[in-house]
Amino acid sequence: MKTALLASFLMLASNAHANFSTTILGDSRGSSVGNKDFTNNNIQNLHRKTNELVLTFDDGPTPGVTEKVLDVLKEKGVKATFFVIASKVPAAPQIMQRMLEEGHIVANHSLNHQNLTKAGMFQWKRILRQEIIGAHDVLAPYMASQTTYFFRAPEGAWDAKNARYLNSEFDVAANYRGPVMWDIGGNVNYDKNNEIYEAADWACWAKKMTVDECLKGYLVDTYRKKGGVVLMHDLRSHSAELLRRYIDETTNAGYTFVNLDQVNLNK
Fold first, then answer.
1. Which of 37, 191, 206, 248 is the most buried (most CB within 10 A)?
2. What is the DSSP string of 131-197?
3. Domains of the chain
4. What would the pLDDT profile of 213-232 be if each residue is shown by its tens digit?
5. Distance, CA of 155 to chain centre
């Protein structure tokens, strides 16, 4: 009798879990499981010493700014990857469509830009579902032509348990690469002679630096590393002018541009 009751309990529990998964996950779970590709750590040191540059933009779309960035990219004939905050997408469908039509990559930068390492022990799985899988569901129509999806963690904050959970529970994880970090554009820093040797656009504008000053930091960092993945943000119009001049300067210095799907991200 005890054995029969236990078996019945386990069957009910299994059915309840299946119903919960179907309700919560919807179409985000596939019918087959492949090799999972969320990594335990950020993927770093991506494309240095190649004399190639990979442009990435975080935190858009931002009406009035992202269009200016797209104008520069179109004028210069350069493709980029846009790590999009998915909650911003419903208000900017035309911008998203333009990204697609002009050959750029749309990538996942979460639903609401939450730090994914600060959730409590009873909340972190729910937040991961919301911020990554929920974002994927919003972005999926704009990534339909891609065989690989890219993810960048907000603030670069990541934990190995996040990868283990996503990879074990969500089949769509098999098509993701990430979290993808960057080589150039993470900080504003000066050497002992007070010469700038690296810059980040968001920090430049917060410090009220000029485009010239910010550009110098990007260029010194680029030439020191001889290429790599470049981080900018489509949040402020200054970044569009920075982008224009950065492309011109690096092209004149012999650098070429590739997009993220041309970079080897094998771990």
1. 37
2. IIIHHHHHHGGGSTT-SSEEB--GGG---HHHHHHHHHH-GGGGGEEEEE--SBSS--EE-TTS-EE
3. 43-262 (3.20.20.370)
4. 999 999 999 999 999 999 99
5. 10
